[in-house]
Amino acid sequence: MLELFLISQQGHIGFEQLIWGCAACLLAVSVALFIYQHRVGRGLASELEQLGKVKKHNVEYELVLEVLKLCTWHIDVAGRTITYDTDYRGRSDCFMPAPGTSLDDLVAVMAKEDQARIRQALDDICAGRIEDYHEISRVRIAHSDKYYWTESYATVSARDTDGLPKTIVGTSQCIDERKHMESALVESRNKAEESDRLKTAFIANMSHEIRTPLNAIIGFTSVLSEVQNEDERRQLVELIQDNNQKLLHIIDNVMTISRIESGKEPLIKSTFELNELLQSLAASFAPQAQPGVAVSVKAGAEQQLITTDMTRLMNVLEHLLSNAVKFTSKGCIVLGYDAPVSKRISIWVSDTGKGLIEKHRERVFERFFKVDEYIPGTGLGLNISRMLVASMGGSISVKSKFGEGSTFRIDIPIA
C-alpha cells in the first residue's frame, strides 16, 4: 500500500510538473507573440507613416505642378520614345502625344526654325553628352498654322550598367504670356530709345531751323540804322518781316506737334460746306504760286456738307498746298475731292511739279525729312499733316512720279 501511495504521489507530482511546464511554454509563447506583434505593429505604424508621407508628398508634388502649370514626361532612351505622364498646363490646344510617341514625331510639330536645335539637344542628352536639357521652342497647335511657346527642362533619371542614360524625365510649361510680356518690354524699350533719338534730333534740327531766320533778323536789324537809302531800308524791312514769318511758322509747327502728341487738344467737329473751304484755300495760295502755275479746285459735287474738325482739315490742306507751291514751277496745282463713300471722303492735292523718286515716297512723312535741302522749310509739314489726319481717324498717302508731279490724298470720316 505504501508503495502504491508513493507511486501515486510521484505520478501526481509529475503531472503537476507537466502542467507547470506547459504553462511556462504557453507564457513564453505568449511573450514571444506579444513581442512579435509589437514589432509588427511598429513596422505597420512605420509603413503607415511612410505611406502618409508619400501621399503628402504626392499631394504637394501635384499642387506644385498645378500651380506652375507644368506637364511631366519621360523619355525611354533605348526606344527613343516620349510619354507624357501628367498635364497641368490648363490648355486644350497644347501638344499631348500618345504614349510611346517617337522623338522624331515630337520634333516634327515644332517650328521649322527650332527643329534642328531641339533635335540636337535631345540627341546630346540621350547620348550622355550633356546632363541637363533646357530649351525654348514654338510648338504648332493642331489643325492650325498657329504656334505657342513652350519651355522644357529635363535630366537623366536612370542609367544602364555602362553609365549611359536609360531614362530621362522632364517638364514643359507654356510661356505665351511671358513671351508677350517680353515682346511688350522690348517694344517699350525700342520706343523709348526711338523717342530719345527723335528728341535729340528734334532739338538739333529745331536749333538749326530757328537760328537761321533769327540770325537774319538780328543781322538785318543791326545794319538797318546805318542804311540811309529808303529803297534799301524797305528791302531790309521786308527781309526782316519775311524771317519773322518764318520764325513764327517754325514755332507754330513745334506747338502743333506738342499739342497733338500730348493729346490735350480735343477734336472740335462742325458741319460746313467743303466747296467753300477749298475755294478759299485755292484763292489764298494762288498768289504764292510761281508765274504761269494755275491753282484751281475740282469739286466732286455742286454742294458737299461734311462734319469734321475744320481747323485741322485746313491745316493739313495748307501744308499740302504749301509743298505743291514750292515744288511746282510749271503746269498746275489742283485741289479737289471725290464723292463720299460709306461716310468717308477722299480729298487730294495734285501738282505737276518735281515729283518724288521711289525711295522718297514713304520717307516724306518722316519728321525733318527734306527732299531738297536748298528749298526753304523745316521738313515738319507732312509729318504734322499725317499726325493731324490720324487724329481725325483718317489716313494720308502719296502717289508720285519723278519729273511728272505728285498727288497727296487724305481719307477721313465725315460724320
Rg = 45 Å
**SSE order, as H and E?**
HEEEHHEEEHHEHEEHEEHEE
In CATH, the topology of the largest domain is named Heat Shock Protein 90
Biggest sheet details:
6 strands, antiparallel
How are the strands of the largest sheet arranged?
3-2-1-6-5-4
Task: Give the full name of the CATH homologous superfamily of the largest domain.
Answer: Histidine kinase-like ATPase, C-terminal domain
Shape: elongated
Number of helices: 8
Distance between the termini: 145 Å
Can you put this structure into words, describing what you see?
This protein is an alpha+beta fold. The chain folds into three domains: 67-174, PAS domain (Beta-Lactamase), CATH 3.30.450; 181-262, Signal transduction histidine kinase, dimerisation/phosphotransfer (DHp) domain (Helix Hairpins, Orthogonal Bundle); 270-413, Heat Shock Protein 90 (2-Layer Sandwich), CATH 3.30.565. Helices cover 51% and strands 22% of the residues. The chain has eight helices and 13 strands. The protein has helices at 2-68, 103-108, 112-126, 176-224, 230-262, 274-285, 310-327, 381-391; strands at 70-76, 81-87, 101-102, 132-140, 147-159, 165-174, 270-273, 294-298, 305-308, 332-337, 344-351, 395-401, 405-413. The chain has a six-stranded antiparallel β-sheet with strand order 3-2-1-6-5-4, sandwiched between helices. It has a five-stranded mixed β-sheet with strand order 8-10-11-13-12, with helices on one face. Strands 7-9 form a two-stranded antiparallel ribbon. Strand 5 and strand 6 (165-174) form a beta hairpin. The protein is elongated.
